[in-house]
Structures are given as C-alpha cells and as structure tokens.
Design brief:
2 copies of one chain form a homodimer. Chain A has 242 residues and is an alpha+beta fold. Chain A folds into 2 domains: 157 residues, Nucleoside Triphosphate Pyrophosphohydrolase (Alpha-Beta Complex), CATH 3.90.79.10; 65 residues, Orthogonal Bundle (Arc Repressor Mutant, subunit A). Chain A is built from 6 helices and 12 strands. At the A-B interface, α1, α2 and β5 of A face α1, α2 and β5 of B. The structure holds a DNA duplex (27 and 27 nucleotides).
Chain lengths: 242, 242
DNA sequence: CGAATAGTGTCTGTTAGACACTATTAA
DNA sequence: TTAATAGTGTCTAACAGACACTATTCG
C-alpha cells in the first residue's frame, strides 16, 4: 500500500494533527394539527446573527453522542425525555465560518402537549412551522404569525433531511406514535401522517390499514370536549407487548 | 436557561476543552453469487491484534467527510470510484481502547469484478463472507476457506447496521445496480436481491416487478459462456434519463 | 434428444383507493 | 332537527406469490 509520509503520521499519531470540533445538533419536532414544527433558537450574536438555528452543543470528551443528545434535550429544551434517533452527520469544511465543526444531528419527536414546559413564548425560541417545497428537498420556516424565518448555517439542509427521513420511516416504523399523546383518536393519527407526508389520505383505507396492523388497542374511552360525535381513544401497543 | 459554568465555557470556547478524534471508516461491500461480502483488513498490532477491521483513517482538518471517504477508498482499497453513502456515526466513549474516537461510517458498493484491482489474495486483507444471524441484528464473518473471523472493535455492529440499511433501501432505491456490472441478466439482479434479503424470491413475480418499474432497458445482447440457454442482458436506466 | 435454465400465462389472495352509507353527539 | 364528524360496507383496480407451462441453448 502506497501511503505518503503525511498520511502515515496522521494515522500513527493523530494527536500531532489539528482535530475538528464535534457538536451534536437537535431537530426537535412535533405536529400540531396538520403542520409539522421544529424548535429553533434565535441567534443574537455573529455569525448568522438574526437568523434561527437548531439547539446544539459540543460533545464532551467523556460523553457518548447519545448522551450529548440527551443533555441538549434537557438543558437546552428543558425536556426530560423524548424519542431520539441519530439522523446524519454534516461535515463540510466551511459549514461554520468560525472553525471546522462536524455536527452529528439527532432528531427528537414528541407530542405537542409536551411543549407546555418550554417557554415557546419567549422571543428567542420558536416552534417554527415547516413548509416543504414540492419534492421535499427544500424547506421554509415560518413563525406563529406566518412571517418567514431565515435559517442559520446549513440548518435548512438539516431540516429538509429530517423531514425526508420522517417520510421514509412513516410506514414501517412507530415514529407517528412518538408524536401523539398516550391516548389518541384515529383522526389524530391520520393528521400526523398527513402532516409528515404533506398529502391528504383516504379515511376508510387509513383506518383499515392501521387496525389491520394490530398495533392499536381500543380503550373504550372517548375524547371529550368535541363539538360533535366524540371519537374513540386508542393506545399504541409496542411490539414486545403483542 | 440554566447552564452551569462548565457548560457555558465549553460552548463559548471549545478550544479549551479536549476534542475527540474523528475518523471515517468504510464498509466496502459486494455480492458474489448469493453471498454478501465486505472488505476487512487484518490487524497485526495491538489493540485487537489478530482481529479483522474495516479500512479507515482520520479526517483531515481541511477535508470534508465525503472527501475522507473517497480518500480511504482510493488509498486503502485502490478503488477509483464507487457508490458511496454515509451510514451512521458511532461515538461510544470506549469503543476504541486507545483514545476517544468518533467514527463516521460510509458504505461503498461495487460489482465483484471491480475488485480485480485489489489484491484480495494478500494475507492481510480479505473479502469476508457476511452471514446474518436470523433477524439481522447479529452477523458473522468468514474467510474464503470458511473459517470464522474475529471482528475488531465495534465493527461487527457496524457491519450489522450496514446489512440492515441495505435491506431497508433495497426496494425503493437503486443500490442493487451499484452491485452489478453495466450489463446484467435478470437472474443476476435477483441473486443480488436474494443475497441482501437472505431469502429466496419467486422468479416470475420478481421479473414482473422489475420490468414494471420501467428502470431496465433490454440491450438485445445475451450473456455468453453459459452452459445452457443464455439470458438477455439489461442495463439500468437512471431516473434522469427516463 | 436430454438437461438445464430463460422466459410466459394464469389463478388466487391481499391490499389500497373511492365512495356511499349509517351512527352518534352537541346545540 | 341539523350540522358535523365517527365509523362501516362494498366495489374495483393493482399487485404479489405460486405454479405450471413453453422456449432456447449446449453437449
């Protein structure tokens, strides 16, 4: 194998070479009604001042990537637990203008109600509405008033990939249930699917498909406060309990 | 936001904190007949001496992750180009006993014939046969003589995840064609699918499904050297040419 | 001609979309 | 009663597995 001396040294003793910094960034997503939302934080200082960024932090030397993601969830979003999954690692050389930063991105899913604890009202953080441009390789963010938000760094690419991943996993995984409370109606489940896919679904076909999977258990209880006929509440049955 | 002083400093000036090393590792896969194979390299020195590991290298400070993957492909496997895709990032604290190393894993797919250039005969590298234990969360490696190979570090987990990813993408992506030469028979295509899935497929149903997708073009040419009736050769038509 | 594989036609069961229908609740 | 949504029954088209069949090539 022909390796140059530089390569040999780098492989032999990497401590002699400058190391990139490593961060974990979090795409914290939820569904409200038929819209997909993600937590973004306003940047007050340069670089990318005035733009909105995903929460993140540097990875500790004695901290696994999963642990770093949990820490960010807790410290930056004040959320004790959520469905967490690694999404992708972004490592372009100039993705951050300050220095070389490689970021391992996780996404976290949780039901809308779990955001109560979070001060989304405070001006510097926002559960931004995600709008997908057609074929899903481009997204736009909007705040509660419908104003477009500028996205910092490569975080728009990250959000687009997160939506793509959700779409891909929707049919064969349990991610939809991570976005719903313990008890939910079939209409709520359908709304989650529609929010992620960005299209409408046929009601009878959707109900049949979900019920045929045998992953739902009817509780016998019904939603309350509905203007009209209340729907039955279901719970999700994880595979291990089937 | 309540952050400790340590956290504040780490976020403010990460240069003051020790950084993990970052490597890129490569799962270089191919299919021969109905078996899935991956390139592994014998470790002569500690740690994990005598075990087999995936090719990898540290990421340069001015090198993107994709570029690092291409460099490893070229320098470590002497292969000019291949289908490359990021798989996952492994970052457990003690995954390497020497020091904290986070590794971004890519997989590379190429047809068996493209391995001609590579000296697989040399004793320190091996196109190991991958055998999947039942539900695909555990794998075993074997050399050409059928002897079991011990796998270094967490590389068995990495290989298992690579197989899982291939299985997940088989039906909706074009990965199978990255494992075949430009012209191939429908039987060869079916063998690739069977190698990845680990199950047999029904021939007429498979042919119909493939031809109905309109992603194959019949060349009018036929394989040669076959013992019996030669099959027609097809080429893959990428989406942009349809 | 015989062996072996290439390639086809057809039956059947499953599933998804479409759509019309009944059921139940609050006002 | 009315408005609005919950939930069901049924028709149809698409598709996959199974299996038997014909076709073609080499020796």
């Amino acid at each position: 194998m022909a390796t140059t001396e530089t390569e040999f040294l780098r492989d032999y003793d990497p401590a002699k070479f400058e190391r990139p910094s490593v961060t974990v960034d979090l795409v914290l997503m939820t569904v409200s009604g038929r819209t997909l939302r993600a937590l973004t934080i306003h940047r007050d200082s340069h670089p990318a001042a005035g733009k909105w960024a995903l929460p993140g932090a540097f990875v500790g030397i004695d901290e696994s990537l999963d642990a770093a993601a949990k820490r960010i969830l807790k410290d930056r979003a004040h959320i004790a637990s959520a469905y967490l999954e690694q999404l992708y690692t972004f490592g372009d050389v100039h993705r951050d203008p300050r220095m070389r930063i490689i970021t391992v991105v996780y996404f976290a899913l949780l039901p809308e109600a779990r955001f109560e604890n979070l001060r989304t009202q405070s001006a510097d953080r926002c559960l931004a509405k995600i709008e997908v441009d057609g074929t899903a390789d481009r997204i736009k963010l909007f705040d509660g008033d419908g104003a477009a938000l500028k996205v910092a760094f490569d975080h728009a690419d990250i959000l687009a990939l997160a939506v793509e991943r959700l779409r891909g996993k929707l049919d064969y995984s349990d991610i939809a249930f991570a976005l719903l409370p313990t008890e939910f109606t079939l209409r709520q489940l359908q709304e989650v699917h529609e929010a992620i896919r960005g299209t409408q679904l046929n009601k009878p076909a959707f109900r049949r498909r979900m019920l045929d999977k045998k992953i739902l258990k009817a509780t016998g209880r019904f939603e309350s406060g509905a203007a009209f006929r209340p729907a039955e509440l279901y719970t999700f049955v994880p595979e291990k309990n089937r």
